[in-house]
Write a structure and sequence with these properties.
single chain, alpha/beta, 7-stranded mixed sheet, 16 strands
Length: about 425
Amino acid sequence: MNILIVPDKYKGSLNALQVAQCIAKGIQNVLPKSQEHAVELLPFADGGDGTVDVCARVLNGSLQEIPVLDAYGHQKKAQYFLQNPPKNASSGTSSGASSGASFSDRMALIESAKIIGIAGHDPHILQPQHANSRGLGMCIAHAIKQHPKEIIVGLGGSATVDGGIGMLEFLGFSFEYAHHTHKNPLLNRPLSICRPSHWDTRINITVASDVRNPLLGKEGAVYCFGAQKGIAHHDLQNYENAMYEYARMISNSKVTNALPAHENDAMHTRFDTLVSTPGTGAAGGLGFAFSVLMGARIAGGFDILSDYTDLETKIARADLVITGEGKLDLQSMYGKVPAGILNLVKKHNKKLLLIVGKYSEDALRVWKSHKEVCGVFASSPDDESWDIIVSHAATRLVSTSSLAMRTILSSSTI
């Protein structure tokens, strides 16, 4: 029997590799020794927290550690993933704004949360008026110098609401402002923008985000996510107005003249269409900056990582697929690893076993309604403290995985 173990992390207790190893140990304890079994481990992520670490483990490449600034301008070290070029790969060279630099057949992956993330900051004293995305621009600039074929930027978990202006400024875009009162450049009311003359339009950027919110409105960057980044309720409209003026300025500017024709066409759509595009509201408007000013495409993080790891092929040749995450709830059906795995399992008519930290009863009913799901097991009880759950996470996951496999084998569902 061919078994593919492809879990997400159990946030706060076990990373994705540790989860996969615990599940493998548990199921191998009960698999019949008289039969041949192939167990493949593929730790996974959805483009958010942990994606860089997963890539470093499952793809051929290395972590690059560089000095950057966090969202509040403090110096720190951050890592991004740089894929090794394939052996015998040739690099094409063409003239352009980067002095004819050669672009290699490899990928760089950056997690914005590792650089300008909200994690590690006291949620009670967040200061969005002092936060900007400059540090992310520093990391992207370093990655560009490595000349990868593609730069993937995972959005999510950022502490900034600056429309990506801080990032853009470090990358060479210049702005004129009404004033210079705030460290958050959005609040300084940008009046105009100029694209850098050295910008290379061959740079291929993909934004990994499952957030589909538009830039403006009640479901936009400010009103939907501003409060969790520290914007006081009475100040939300001020940020919304600033974001509106920024987007209006961009839509009226000639900043797109240096872009290829197909990007110009996309930029010259009506203002209302531009600010309502799904994904532009991600990460405090970073989605807007990437897609509108840098020609990036926005795609689901799960789909991007699936392509690079050849996940569908691995699922197609498996007899049983095992996945899981720390907490299985109704949100797990939207853009998360278990949902993406389920879709591929359905496509190839395979069986899926879920081994999670916890699950909600409503989520359990939904997941069990799918005929491909042959079991859902939780390793942690609901009534324990977080400290106990974390300290026993690994041993309990091993024993739960043994129980799950034993149950599946006895029921003859595979």
